[in-house]
Amino acid sequence: MALTSIRPEKLADAVARHIQELILEGALPPGERLLPERELALKLDVSRPSLRDALEQLVDRGMLMTDANGACYVSDKIGKSIRDPLMHLFDDARGRFDCMEFRAVVEASAAGLAAERASEADRDEITRCFEKMQAAHDAGDVEAIAATDGDFHFAVYGAAHNVMLLQVMRSLESILRSNVYLNRRNLYEHRRDRDEQLAEHRAIFEAIMARDAARAETASRQHMVSTMQTQREIHEEEQRLEAAIRRLARHELLATPKGKR
Ligand SMILES: [Zn+2]
């Protein structure tokens, strides 16, 4: 009797831990719907009460959400508490620099770890992302290039197999993506060579495929250095433009500009 009363609870804990790991590792992405309880219980080979208990634990922890019909979803609010207050910090140039600088720190390590740890599935995913990026480049589709750029980097974070790294980057995803996008858009309106950008990603891609961690780190670092350099140039250009506009506005505000009349 004692055994049966303890066992379901322990099993539920184990099931909860297992599902939580899948969520934190990114195998179950935010917003994804889980199988119906009956099927899930069969798949995991556990009783429905144990499964229900496990799911309830995860709902309490905010990892899962249920809808009115009782369907279970992976919460899309995981990491929101990190993301939301920070969002506003990234509206200006300073925030964007800091974001890139932080990325530069993480990015190289992530690429190195990915080179060492990527599973076959990870390698397929990184390859798929790189090929899509290449196609976007070929088509000259700036939005697709920005999206695939983000996808590529997230595939690398996933392949690094470090739960902390992936979750921190996930929680910053919208910031990082808007950052990638802003850079991209500016990039094409400015001087930077598209081929150069693709070549930087190719270098990272090939090093990871070759399982060469040192080369992957170097390639990744180079990508971030040149991206930050571009951002600096864009920022300086924007500031010059802004100063010019300010001067113009002040000048035009004068009823009788000096030198005239
Ligand atoms: Zn990139």
Overall description:
This protein is mostly helical and 261 residues long. It contains 11 helices and 2 strands. The protein has 2 domains: 11-74, Winged helix-like DNA-binding domain superfamily/Winged helix DNA-binding domain (Arc Repressor Mutant, subunit A); 80-248, GntR ligand-binding domain-like (Four Helix Bundle (Hemerythrin (Met), subunit A), Up-down Bundle), CATH 1.20.120. 76% of the residues lie in helices and 2% in strands. It has a two-stranded antiparallel sheet with strand order 1-2. Strand 1 (64-66) and strand 2 form a beta hairpin. Helix 7 (142-159) packs across helix 9. The model is unreliable at 1-8 (pLDDT under 50). Zinc ion (ZN) binds at residues 149, 153, 201, 223. Residues 9-77 form the HTH gntR-type domain. Residues 227-254 form a coiled coil. Keywords: Coiled coil, DNA-binding, Repressor, Transcription, Transcription regulation. Transcriptional repressor for the pyruvate dehydrogenase complex genes aceEF and lpd.
Number of strands: 2
CATH topology of the largest domain: Four Helix Bundle (Hemerythrin (Met), subunit A)
Overall pLDDT level: 81
The helical percent reads over 70%
Task: Based on Cα principal axes, name the global outline.
Answer: globular
Features:
261 residues, mainly alpha, Arc Repressor Mutant, subunit A, Four Helix Bundle (Hemerythrin (Met), subunit A), two-stranded antiparallel sheet, 11 helices, 2 strands, globular, disordered N terminus, binds zinc ion, Tscrpt_reg_HTH_GntR, transcription regulation, DNA-binding, coiled coil, transcription
